[in-house]
Specification:
- The chain is an alpha/beta fold and 435 residues long.
- It is 30% helix and 20% strand.
- It has 14 helices and 16 strands.
- The strands form four sheets. The chain has a five-stranded parallel beta sheet with strand order 3-2-1-7-16, with helices on one face. A five-stranded parallel beta sheet has the order 8-15-9-10-11, covered by helices on one side. The protein has a three-stranded antiparallel beta sheet with strand order 4-5-6.
- Strand 13 and strand 14 form a beta hairpin.
- Helix 1 packs across helix 3.
Amino acid sequence: MTLQHLIVIGAGPKAVSIAAKLEALNRSGFTVPKLTVLDPNGVAANWAGEILEYTNGRQDLATPPLKDVGFPYRSQAWGISNERVNSEMLSFGWQAYLVTDPRRGSEDFSSWVDRGMHNPSLKQWAKYLSWVANEAQFPIDKRRVIKIGISGRLWDLTVVEESATNQGGSISGAEDHVLGDGLVITGPGPITPISGYDDSRHPPTITDAKNFWQHLNRIASARRQVIGVIGSGGAAASVVSTLLKSTRGNFLIQLITPDGVIYSRGESYDENRHYSDPQAWEEFGADSRTKFLEHTAAGVFSLADKRVMDVAPNLDTIAGSVSRVTFINHDKGAMVYLKGARRKHYDKIVVAWGFDAMDWQNLLDGTAMDRIAAALHGPIEREAIKDRIGNHLEIEGLAPWLHLPMLADKKGPGFVGLMCLGLLSDRILEAYVFP
């Protein structure tokens, strides 16, 4: 049997969990596919804050670190070897990292427990993921994907060296091709655009959840200014909590949310269990799933961030649905336009709302677009894809395999984020170990 080849775009937690599970399966005697992970920035670079995109690495991880690359350690895909695979995955767990890795810093496992098993910073979490990648012995291909095509029954990815991609987005340098039987696309995608905002001209007066971190010092040092933050989810929570913890400035923050209320994330057993075991999830009606996700993931702040905000006298929350922003100039600030003919002036604005999980389609060539559209029986749209996601987190009916975990919330609430990485890797790799 010809060894299959699985390609993953993005070297974040999902890719690392897949690599660790492959190594665990290999140690357990399974024949596993070849793995290629493509990411020009390396392992968990966005989490570490090294490139100052999405974070500076100092925020706390919103999920418990014991929900690591192997969680929930409840494999059901590997027959009589399930317990062996779970045991092998423990060697890649958070506890194993704190016990064995000499680069972890001053804190070892016992001191972490004695200090209350706190959530690590995103930078610390990135170090853990890098350790897992090293232990799993898989290299990162640092070439950038510039086109996704299909040749016969194989994915055909056009890649270039990162140095051949300049800041203007044009490509210079030799192109190469990576062929694979399956493709996993990870990451949240870019910031959803807002009308009136130009990310090349308007920072630091207007920034977004991606480039805010590059301009943090100039924003946080503002005195007697009003900063408007647009958003109600995790990105907005990171921005607001970071500003509130700053001692450099003297400013008022107005958080603009559709409801005018900051909701905290549900953290009870009855909520968390559906992330760990989504067996009953598909029995939920559409309205129940939406309500559940709104309460536990979408448009909610972590309990830690909520505690910071609850005691902040310089934070105000207002209700409003933002339609556009207008940049005045760097001295006079910008305007936010709300539905209902309202508008508000701010000295600084941070657009910290959702990400575009469909951005990958901009890389598709004509053949790939036609093949995906045929599997969907219509246009390539978010809801159409969600309705066609199968048990392997793939678009059903499409050959070759295309796995889209960020659009798999109808198969389980945890696949989009970090709440069941071990289950996610089981679902995807089962398609290649038992083709």
